[in-house]
């Protein structure tokens, strides 16, 4: 009876220790996560800038095509 109680107590202690260790990430992992978050934010900013440049160039091309259509109709 005492052995069973001792084994259950030991198993419970090990279980609690494993849960507490799993829930507390070490500082190194936290720093890695923060670095990845910053990297993703930087990439998102670059994507937004690139999207703006693409939209500006697309507007230029659309205006060029519009002008070309106007001039082509005048020539006929």
CA radius of gyration is 32 Å
Low-confidence spans = none
Tell the overall outline: rod-shaped
| Percent of residues in helices | over 70%
How does the major sheet shape up?
Answer: none
Q: What average pLDDT do the residues reach?
A: 83
Count of helical regions: 2
Q: How many extended strands?
A: 0
Structural class: mainly alpha
Q: What sequence of helices (H) and strands (E) makes up the elements?
A: HH
Termini separation = 105 Å
Strand content: under 5%
Summary, kept brief:
The chain has 76 residues and is an all-alpha fold. It has helices spanning 2-23, 27-75.
Architecture overview:
The protein is mainly α and 76 residues long. It has helices spanning 2-23, 27-75. It has two helices and no strands.
Distinctive features:
2 helices; mainly alpha; 76 residues
Topology at a glance:
Layout: H1 2-23, H2 27-75
